[in-house]
Design a protein that fits this description.
It is a single chain. The protein contains 5 helices and 6 strands. By secondary structure, the protein is an alpha+beta fold. It is globular and about 60 Å long. The protein has one domain. Helix content is 31%, strand content 17%. Strand 3 and strand 4 form a beta hairpin.
Length: 163
């Protein structure tokens, strides 16, 4: 899948990985408890095969899971049994464990909680904030040159659907 102009790399990955499934904001917490087998079979630096992705697949029957620095996308069933992708915020303990694992440090099989995004961290709010910053940003510098593009952490969230 070819990236659109100024499209965040994570957005391209998420769109490709979850092709066709609706992506919604999580409304509940999700506990993750990796076991020694998850740790043994995981790959460092791979968002879809890290220890926590493996744990979600094992615990919740998810077929597709991606963990980024502060966000996690987990394939779960809704109340009617339909598959959908829920977007979570990774707790600070979880972020610390991900960094340690990716750095090659040994981690213990302890759990953490994926949290629903707060009101100020939903995709809709982040997109609105990014649009406002873009509107306020000058189109040219004082010397007439174009300003450097600054990647927005919210750009890859533009495709998240709200229930």
């Amino acid at each position: 899948m070819k990236a659109k102009r100024h499209e965040h790399p994570n957005r391209v990955l998420v769109r490709k990985w979850f092709d066709g499934l609706p992506i919604v904001e999580a409304k509940h917490e999700l506990r993750i408890q990796p076991n020694p087998q998850d740790i043994k079979n995981a790959k460092k630096g791979d968002p879809s095969n890290c220890v926590f992705s493996k744990a979600c697949k094992r615990m919740w029957g998810s077929s597709k899971v991606i963990f980024f620095g502060k966000r996690a996308y987990v394939d779960l069933l809704d109340a009617k049994g339909n598959r959908r992708i829920e977007r979570f915020t990774i707790s600070s303990a979880g972020q610390r464990m991900i960094k340690e694992f990716d750095a090659g440090k040994k981690i213990d099989p302890q759990g953490f909680v994926l949290l629903p995004p707060g009101k100020g961290n939903t995709a809709e709010v982040l997109r609105a904030r990014a649009r406002e910053q873009y509107r306020r940003k000058p189109r040219t510098n004082k010397d007439g040159s174009r300003p450097k593009a600054r990647p927005s952490h919210a750009r890859y969230l533009a495709f998240v659907q709200h229930p």
